[in-house]
Design goal:
The chain is α+β, with helices and mostly antiparallel strands. It has one domain: Gcn5-related N-acetyltransferase (GNAT) (Aminopeptidase). Helix content is 33%, strand content 24%. The two termini are 28 Å apart. 28% of the residues are buried.
């Protein structure tokens, strides 16, 4: 993947130096509050390798977020297929993110996600990008709203991969953005 640069960030493929941060965000109880699992180091390393290989193959995915001024990796953001059949048809693309807690509230996820939306609609010519989160994950849904994504209550769903041991994490809120909505938002910002 060719790195994407924003005002403060570099969105790039994963490097071995990112493994410690990646493990930390995938095992941190605050970051993973709305997930029914935590990853140990081996699982985290395998997930990073999977993301890195997928990005190398497709040119996009859940990529590292690096602060340009310091070179610190602070989390990830990007586009990928959600692989949630039958909830989403094949070819659906979601935008998602995860950030270390000490970097919350600084606008990094919104900045990275705006760049990825632009990539999705402009470089990939997508017609729509979706995002979803546990219905009361207000930190994530607030980002979706700041991005200008539209809540679609008719598309809310029970996540098929959430085990019965975590019923409070099953219901997910769905947000959408079409290419037309993105273009209208882009024109309004000029």
């Amino acid at each position: 993947m060719k790195p994407i640069r924003t005002e403060r960030l570099i969105l790039r493929n994963w490097e071995d130096r990112d493994r410690d941060l990646f493990f930390r965000i995938n095992s941190d109880d605050r970051v993973m509050e709305f997930f029914p699992f935590r990853r140990d180091r081996a699982e985290s390393d395998m997930f990073l390798d999977c993301l890195r290989d997928g990005i190398a193959e497709r040119g996009y995915g859940f990529s590292a977020i690096e602060i340009a001024a310091t070179g610190e990796c602070v989390g990830f953001c990007g586009l990928k297929e959600p692989e949630l059949d039958p909830v989403f048809p094949a070819g659906t693309i979601e935008i998602g993110w995860r950030l270390a807690p000490e970097y919350w509230g600084k606008g990094y996820v919104t900045e990275a996600a705006q760049a990825w939306l632009g990539f999705g609609f402009e470089a990939l010519s997508l017609d729509e990008i979706v995002s979803f989160a546990v219905w009361n994950n207000f930190r994530s849904t607030a980002v979706m709203e700041r991005l200008g994504m539209r809540r679609d209550p008719s598309g809310d769903f029970d996540h098929p991969n959430v085990p019965d041991t975590h019923p409070h994490l099953r219901r997910h809120a769905l947000y959408r953005m079409t290419r037309e909505e993105w273009e209208k938002q882009k024109r309004a910002a000029l």
